[in-house]
Specification:
The structure is a homodimer of 200-residue chains.
Chain A lengths: L4 E6 L5 H12 L3 E2 L1 H11 L3 H7 L9 H4 L14 H18 L4 E3 L3 H4 L6 E7 L2 H12 L6 H20 L11 E4 H4 L1 H12 L2
Parallel strand pairs in A: 1-3, 1-4, 2-3, 4-5
């Protein structure tokens, strides 16, 4: 049974993270999500919450000035902006994890970062806005903003970040081996299809 | 075993038609490709070769003037352009075929035409240019144009036609339940994954 490195890109609220965790369990391979954040935090010196918030998102409005600043720690950030420094650490950590063998990596543009490797299965999980809105309220509760606005904002920030660092269009089928609509197929079916595709 | 209406949109040379035929065989349901062309030809009065060439493509350069003309057969085409008349017949034929029950329909924007129905699985098959170039030369032989140019031209014409009649972006994952890269997954694996998704 050939098992691959599986990258899972996902729209916010689509259940991509849950799918990834179950795929990793089924295949008995490591699942990198929080671990990835912690490793990037360790290597960059940023707080895990900062990495979590900024590792795959363009800056939110309130952080606009900050993230585009050229604020540097001389000798460490080497003249890079905070965002670019975080990106370079992220690339390095993801390559190191991929070197260890088959695993599931969620988010953080890993499909692009690992594009020159063989034996990688790139997956994109998406769903329509109603499905995702219902799901985020059920899982994360209500907030001041409507679930639709929360989704639009997160989607936009992931999209801008992806396009900036990869030059590719977010959500275009051609970037992936497999794109799945978790809203119509169901979470369990997504898991089954990825496991099947990864073990051919 | 629930079986659905399966629409297969595909990039030229990706093997989507072969995948569709085998999915239909495996599920024991009708496969509409040439039959669809013949039915549209019968209902529109156009030659099958004309329907085949124009049913899902924007006009090629040589036909540009023709397809955008308002040339009409009074009382039949009802003031529509040839392209719009063909589109209206195509919508009607695809709806009639879908009324008959589970089937596989290849191309012709069926994903959009059937968007208001339940029990439809929309699939998009794509592959990188090298894989498709090798495949079209192997299957259809050489021609005056390079295989890459043939692919770019066909891709562009399908893309423009799709965008014109559906308002959607061709190849965007969100239009489909399942998008598959036949070049990396292999034709057989695509068949297996679609059968699996259709019978959950």
């Amino acid at each position: 049974m050939a098992t691959k490195i599986i990258t899972i890109s996902r729209e916010f609220g689509s259940g991509g993270r849950s799918v990834g965790r179950e795929v990793a369990d089924r295949l008995g391979i490591p699942f990198y999500d929080k671990e990835l954040v912690e490793q990037i935090a360790l290597e960059s010196g940023f707080a895990p919450t900062f990495v979590e918030e900024n590792g795959e998102h363009s800056p939110s409005k309130s952080r606009f000035a900050y993230a585009f600043s050229q604020q540097t720690i001389p000798g460490i950030m080497n003249g890079m902006s905070t965002a670019d420094f975080l990106w370079s650490i992220q690339c390095s950590v993801i390559q190191q994890l991929a070197d260890k063998g088959p695993c599931v990596i969620v988010g953080r543009n890993a499909d692009y970062i690992l594009k020159d490797r063989k034996n990688v299965l790139n997956v994109f999980i998406h769903a329509d806005i109603d499905y995702r809105a219902e799901r985020i309220v059920r899982l994360y509760g209500e907030s001041e903003k409507s679930p639709e606005n929360r989704l639009h904002e997160k989607d936009k920030r992931r999209k801008v970040n992806y396009q900036h660092y990869t030059g590719r269009i977010w959500g275009s089928a051609k970037n992936y081996d497999l794109c799945l609509n978790s809203g119509t197929l169901g979470i369990q079916s997504c898991v089954d299809l990825i496991v099947s595709a990864a073990t051919k």
